[in-house]
Every structure is written in structure tokens, then in C-alpha cells.
Request: fold
Amino acid sequence: MDKVGILCRKDSIMMHEFSRLSLDRIKGHSSLLSVTVSFFSSYMEANVKKEVEKDRLIIEEAAAAFKAGRPACDLDLEDIFEKTKEVDKKFLDSLMVPSFSFSVHYSDFADIRIQRIWRIARSVYALLGKWPDGAPFADAAKKAYARKTFKELLVEILHLYNLETRILGDAIRSPFHNAISTYVEALFHAMEETTEELANDYAKEIYGEEIIHV
Reply:
């Protein structure tokens, strides 16, 4: 049973759905230039692929350490962070288009990314530690986390992604600076709203309808 593969696929599905729902929230924003919308459609498509690739790297690193019997606190988060930079480089190289460039300073978001690496890695440990062979992912999630904790974890991971996406968006240099700034801010707020919605949906999918006692 390829538990690591399942985790990577679950993450990929979630991140692509998150990106689609976030973009759907800001469609028809009349104040945006068509060139900006066109660029950001390509940007977000490439960005989510980049994020899925980084998440796969984190999941595999954490799973290998778990299998080797190393405690989560011994993970070298800085080393994983350095490896994610290679994924970033491919992403930035793929976005070399006329009139747009990036001025990226890792010091602006290093702490945010390392926090996200830690939360994903810790969740890999929690899930693998409660996942019997042959059991579905939902069983592992329910054994590892209470509903509220699971939802809060998803919100934290996605929120950190939102923060980094906004910082990267602000690093774009272009003659269309005002339109881009407007789009970046609108996109960030759409992502934040989608975070809560998606976390609720996934919690419902795994734990069922929430029963509220009154």
C-alpha cells in the first residue's frame, strides 16, 4: 500500500481545487486589465503545480524520516527549505514573459514557508503513525485528529500558502503595477475566504455532518 503516494495525490487534488475555487471568486473583476488577468491565469496554474511539487518533496522527506525511526523534531527544516528553492527556480524560469519580472527575496517569507513545511511534515508523522495497512485515508485522519483539529490544520497550512502567494505576487515587477497590486490583494482575500470553505468541506467528507448540540 503506497501511503506516501496517497498523501501526495490527496494534496494535489486539494491544492488544484483550492486554486480553482479561489480564482472563481474573482472572475469578472471589472477593474482589472485583461493583460493582468491573462498573466495571472498562467501564473496561478504554474504556481499551484509548483506548490504541489514542493508539498510532494516535504511529504516524501517526512515519510522517509518516519520510516527510518527518526522523531519529527529531528527533521532538518532548513535543509528541506533549501530543496524547495530548486522547485521555485523552475517555476520562476517558466514565467519569463515580456513586461513581467520577479524580485524575490527569500528573507521575506522564509519563516512562513518553514512553518508550512513543519506543519505538513508533522501531519505526515501523525497520519502514518495511525494508518493501518489496507485502511483508507479517512480512517487514518480520524484516528490521528479530532474533527476540529483536522480542520484547523488545513486552515493553517492553506493560510500560510496564501501569505506566501501574496508576497510572491507583490514581487512581480511590471508596467501594470497598479492593476497587479489590485489583483494580488483581491486574490489573497479570495484565497482566505476559500480556505475556510474548503477546510469545512474536507472535514465534512471525512468526519460526516457536524452534530451541534444545543
Summary: The mean pLDDT is 87. Residues 3-207 form one domain. Helices lie at 3-25, 34-67, 77-94, 110-128, 137-144, 147-170, 177-207.
